[in-house]
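agent: user wants the structure for TetR/AcrR family transcriptional regulator from Chromobacterium indicum. delegating to structure tool.
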Amino acid sequence: MTAIPQPRKQPRQARSRHAVAAILEAAARILAGDGYASFNTNRVAELSGVGIGSLYQYFPNKQALLAALHRRHGEETLAALDDALARSAGRPPREQLAAMVAAALDLHRRELGLHRVLEREWPIYDEPPASNPIDAALHARIAAWLADAGGDPARAGLLLRMADSLVHGLLLDADPQAEGLDEAITDALAGYLALPAYHHT
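agent: tool returned. relaying tokens verbatim.
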């Protein structure tokens, strides 16, 4: 199994966290706009405004940047899911599911170029679920939601894998703005969970 590159150290102070955030944003912009062939640490340092020496304090190479972008995406996915659940609290389960699907699609649509590189060219730097704390947190959120909705929490893992495959497959390999994409994914997942249909108004 491929070893996941790790950062050299974690930023502790606000200034260091700001520098790391700027480095990752610059890396994401280069990958999204120009692809992996144009991706290197010197370009990232220049675009981020962070010295190359400072960049190397945190990331030993560009592979470590790729791994960090995978982790950042996981954190953003968890935050989007939490927001969707908070905004749809009290609604029927199918509407809550639709809110989560919409949030996931919106997140991916904002950085399609980046996700094509991460998911299609360098998926090996995504930490496997067995050791990934973000995956564990996502699983816990979905299991709790299923329990609250009267479903089976044991289905959380498969539901997440299905959602991941549908979102990445339909967005990255097809037209990301295709009409009815949100509804198609929601219907597929709701079918697995046997959630009752609702009428759009």
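agent: one observation worth passing along. The mean pLDDT is 91.
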